[in-house]
Write a structure and sequence with these properties.
Bound molecules: pyridoxal-5'-phosphate
Helix content: 25-40%
Family: Belongs to the DegT/DnrJ/EryC1 family.
Number of domains: 2
CATH architecture of the largest domain: 3-Layer(aba) Sandwich
Number of strands: 13
CATH class of the largest domain: Alpha Beta
Shape: globular
Distance between the termini: 12 Å
Organism: Fictibacillus terranigra
Enzyme class: transferase
Keywords: Aminotransferase, Pyridoxal phosphate, Transferase
Strand content: 5-15%
Oligomer: single chain
Structural class: alpha/beta
CATH topology of the largest domain: Aspartate Aminotransferase, domain 2
Protein name: DegT/DnrJ/EryC1/StrS family aminotransferase
Length: about 425
């Protein structure tokens, strides 16, 4: 029998605050003071960004990475270094932050959207394959919400069609695919340290360069620094092609050094919490937990489950509203719409008063291009996951989902108590 919901005046499941904490402390302050004492905040002359990258490379077991000013900059830098240029097509995800897309358009290349797996919310390799044309130059994989995408199949496709693979790991620190960290599998991995990610330097980002060729690292490094060639002694300012200034400052590098030390703990808490939610809701009829494929580790930037509306006497929005009333900060969906529904793609205007570069490839974004992605956003409910939460907070989330699901579940057996009678 179902309990009276808080939305109907019943007792809230969660009436105590969620766990919180301070992300920054004296560790960051000490690094910042040292940065200032260097008397330079320029990455090339100071030691902080270099140390930050050394620590990052060690944590990831890689040889090369480049520090940049944002996750958006990281993606653009990877695309630029990969040689993505005018009229190229880049296959990517329709459910992502716009930071994934901006660099594609700044290179005057065009995004092509692949549909998603219904429960991992990551790009479906079969759909990626259908998107490949002679213009395709890269697959820009988004590991959404800390959950690794199907990299084996994506790498196979890339090899077969000679495409670059860029991993957008902005939401997926220390997530692993079959024992390999995401961001180390494709040609490049892109990270963000904006204030909403697992770790923050205010703003900032990193690009991993996974090629064994030092030249690929040099090209990437230069692309984030106006194509100045600063590595190895003399500075070469010969501008061979266009590149932006996406440099990270020593202040960000300093904070990053201290933040990186906290990253493993942050991620392991998030993994434990997300997996716990799945355990607690996986057998509920009509609920699909956030699917993490076997062998992978998800570091949950958020947790997102889906409901099957046909099995409930409520809409997705009503379900989310009921959870909110129970004291759980749930929200309906993630981004309001798949990204190709935004004005930029609908009006094909990457630049004001222009339809370039869409004209070059003839790209149009009409209709239901990625039906599964659109369905995900219509039936998903998102829960925040935070390293400062406690297991009791997570238990309350689970209890609330169970309570709301139980209340709204359609009765299957004729003659059983109707909902109305049980909470009369
Ligand atoms: C946050 C984010 C970005 C952009 O990062 P910024 O640092 O805000 O530029 C790119 N891709 C994804 C998937 C993100 O979540």
């Amino acid at each position: 029998m179902s309990e009276k919901l808080a939305i109907h005046g019943g007792r809230k499941v969660k009436d105590t605050p969620f766990g919180t904490g301070k992300r920054f402390g004296l560790e960051e302050a000490k690094e910042l003071v040292e940065a200032l004492e260097q008397n330079t905040l320029f990455y090339h002359n100071g030691e902080k960004v270099k140390k930050f990258l050394d620590a990052f490379n060690e944590m990831y077991g890689i040889s090369y990475s480049v520090a940049v000013s944002s996750g958006t900059a990281a993606v653009h830098t990877a695309l630029g270094a990969a040689g993505i240029t005018v009229g190229d097509e880049v296959i990517t995800s329709p459910i992502t932050d716009q930071g994934t897309l901006i660099g594609i358009l700044y290179q005057n290349a065009v995004p092509v959207f692949a549909d998603l797996h219904p429960h991992t919310y990551n790009m479906d390799p079969n759909s990626i394959e259908r998107c490949i044309t002679p213009r395709t130059k890269a697959i820009l994989v988004v590991h959404l919400a800390g959950n690794p995408a199907n990299m084996n199949e994506i790498m196979d496709l890339a090899k077969k069609h000679r495409l670059k693979v860029i991993e957008d790991c902005a939401q997926s620190y220390l997530a692993s695919y079959n024992g390999r960290l995401v961001g180390t599998i494709g040609d490049y991995g892109c990270f963000s340290t904006n204030d909403f990610k697992h770790i923050s330097t205010g703003d900032g980002g990193m690009v991993t360069v996974n090629s064994a060729e030092e030249q690929d690292f040099k090209v990437t490094h230069a692309f984030a620094d106006k194509n100045y060639l600063r590595l190895g002694g003399i500075v070469n300012r010969d501008l061979s092609y266009l590149a932006p200034n996406y440099r990270m400052t020593e202040l960000q590098g300093a904070v990053g050094i201290a933040q990186l030390k906290k990253l493993p703990g942050i991620c392991s808490n998030r993994t434990a919490y997300g997996n716990k939610i799945t355990e607690g809701i996986k057998e509920l009829d009509g609920i699909h937990p956030h699917q993490v494929d076997e062998g992978n580790v998800c570091t949950y930037w958020f947790y997102m489950f889906r409901i099957e509306p046909s099995k409930y006497d409520c809409t997705r929005d009503e379900f989310a509203a009921a959870l909110k009333e129970e004291g759980i900060p749930a929200s309906a969906g993630y981004i309001p719409e798949v990204v190709y529904k935004s004005g930029l793609f609908q009006k094909r205007s990457a630049y004001q008063n222009s339809t370039f570069p869409f004209d070059v490839t003839g790209a149009v974004y009409e209709g239901e291009l990625c039906p599964e992605a659109e369905n995900i956003l219509k039936t998903a409910i998102r829960l925040p996951v935070n390293e400062f939460y406690t297991m009791a907070d997570i238990q309350a989330m689970i209890a609330s989902i169970r309570k709301v699901a139980c209340f709204y579940q359609k009765q299957k057996v004729a003659g059983t108590l109707q909902r109305g009678e049980s909470h009369g």
